[in-house]
Design goal:
By secondary structure, this protein is an all-beta fold. It has one helix and 25 strands. The chain has a five-stranded antiparallel beta sheet with strand order 10-11-12-13-14, with no helix packed on it. A four-stranded antiparallel beta sheet has the order 1-25-24-23, with no helix packed on it. It has a four-stranded antiparallel beta sheet with strand order 2-3-4-5, with no helix packed on it.
Length: 390
């Protein structure tokens, strides 16, 4: 299986995914913590749903275009739809990050491509680890963590390896690029350990990033699952005339399980999306659940166990990518099969729509609601394409 935020320039909050590999499903299994969870996040959110599920009207999957650039990178993970044109970025296009190189080794992809709704692809950036303007532990292996800031600055996560194996995985960090695709800075530190996915919200010239970390402290000898992954809130100031400046970093959730995996590189917390009431939803991939972190923009303490359980098991089979539907429902992409699942903020699983009938498990990662709200763009690393569910 292969791997894997709203974005500042997105039509809707995006989150995406995390499971690296080469086309097979990662092993599935709900931990006892999630299986026994009975807490509902319904009290933390005021969102409501329409009588008809958002997915009910979406039944057709169309291939938009290839995500493979000239250098052969594969495994598309992160995705964001652009709302503003600046530099190389064109409004309406989809910006996509690749996690694997042409040899299909995980954590070695270095490219971001831009694909138009008509399927035309162009290279936005090919990042050279040797010429980065700042430190980045381990080098470059682009994850699903992807956002766009005011001024057209792009922030992308890196969880690098040297040979595609989890034993060589390093903490990586975040890479900041300008609107021409040139790296201008890096964001690293002890709180950023394997940035896996991301979402963001902008107020004025200040953007808040929410980053799910899939590695924390490295694998412990003899311990298969480690309950210490986090969600990090990063406040950044930027504008067309000011390069991004980090103002603060705060851990807002901890105690989330992760583990390294021979097929998936790492399985851990992935997709994140911020609701209008300030609740951050998280795809807790290893526990097969959706969690809710209340007061995500303002809280100063970490929510234990990754937050309150919204929904667990059922149609959720290793949820990776996560975003919000126009009606406030939660949309997740399963790693365990080719389905996109719609769940209400109260935890009711409404519908599962098959998005990939061919390669199925391990193919879905990042997803974003189409501008205008009449479809879902998603990346499919089963055949390395951008697709549209409409």
């Amino acid at each position: 299986m292969k791997l894997t935020l709203g974005k500042a320039m997105l039509a809707a909050p995006v989150a995406a995914l995390a499971i690296a590999g080469c086309g097979s499903a990662a092993s599935s299994g709900t931990t006892s913590k999630a299986a026994s969870a009975t807490t509902s996040a319904a009290a933390t959110t005021t969102a409501t749903t329409t009588p008809s599920p958002f997915l009910a009207g979406l039944k057709t999957v169309s291939t938009v275009g290839s995500t493979v650039p000239a250098d052969g990178d594969v495994n598309p993970y992160g995705i964001v739809q652009l709302s503003t044109s600046t530099g190389k970025l064109h409004a309406g296009d989809l910006l996509i990050s690749n996690f694997n190189d042409k040899a299909n080794e995980q954590g070695t992809g270095t490219t971001l491509v831009e694909v138009s709704p008509a399927g035309k692809q162009s290279l936005f950036s090919n990042i050279n680890a040797k010429t980065l303007p700042g430190p980045l532990p381990g080098g470059v292996g682009l994850t699903t963590a992807l956002s766009v800031l005011p001024g057209g600055y792009v922030v992308v996560g890196s969880l690098p390896t040297t040979n595609g194996k989890s034993a060589t995985a390093q903490y990586g960090g975040l890479i900041v690029l300008n609107n021409e695709g040139k790296p201008v800075s890096t964001i690293t530190g002890p709180k950023i350990q394997g940035p896996w996915d991301m979402t963001s919200v902008t107020h004025g010239d200040t953007t808040t990033l929410f980053v799910s970390n899939a590695l924390n402290g490295g694998a412990e000898v003899g311990k298969h699952t480690i309950d210490n992954s986090t969600v990090l809130r990063i406040s950044i100031q930027s504008s067309a005339s000011q390069a991004p400046k980090v103002l603060s970093q705060t851990v807002i959730a901890d105690g989330i399980p992760w583990r390294d995996d021979p097929n998936a590189l790492v399985i851990g917390p992935t997709g994140v999306a911020l609701a209008s009431n300030g609740t951050l939803y998280l795809a807790d991939t290893l526990d097969n659940r959706i969690a809710a972190i209340p007061n995500a923009l303002t809280r100063t303490t970490a929510a234990s166990d990754g937050g309150a359980t919204v929904s667990v098991g059922g149609k959720l089979i290793q949820p990776l990518g996560l975003t919000l539907a126009p009606n406030g429902d939660i949309l997740t992409a399963n790693a365990g099969n080719g389905n996109i699942v719609e769940t209400t903020p109260a935890g009711k699983q409404l519908i599962a729509r098959t998005a990939d009938k061919n390669t199925g498990a391990g193919s879905l990662f990042g997803l974003v609601v189409k501008s205008g709200g009449n479809g879902i763009y998603f990346v499919d690393d089963g055949d390395n394409t951008l697709k549209l569910l409409h």
